[in-house]
Amino acid sequence: MQNTRLNGLTSQLLGRFVGFLGNPWRRLSLLIIGFLGGNFLASIVSTVAGQRSTLDVQIALLQVLFIEAISWIVYRRSRRLDQSPERPLLLETLNNLKIGFLYGMFVEAFKLGS
Fold first, then answer.
1. How would residue 93 be classed by pLDDT, with cut points 50, 70 and 90?
2. Domain containing 99: what range?
3. What pTM was computed for the model?
4. Which is it for the CA torsion 105, 108, 113, 114, positive or negative?
5. Cα dist from 78 to 19, 75, 81, 85, whole Å
6. In this structure, is residue 7 part of a structural domain?
């Protein structure tokens, strides 16, 4: 791309934002928000899918595809080729969203079973 003022401003703002999120407490906060967001998403999906019980099989298929797609995205990188032990923040947040979603689905299943 051309080196315009808008391009320079955008890259500078993005660099500052990534630096802002580099703080360990902010990183932990985003990971917790991802986990709780996944739990909330599971509650929403189970409530909406429970209203119309005609789509149970299709919703279950979409949930499995969602979880497997996130697992493939997060774990596809080889650990031997990557020298840094940490994954990028976006991948960690996405993985915590998946974990929260799975946890929320188990909680909803226990609620329905009792």
1. very high
2. 24-113
3. 0.79
4. positive
5. 26, 8, 6, 11
6. no
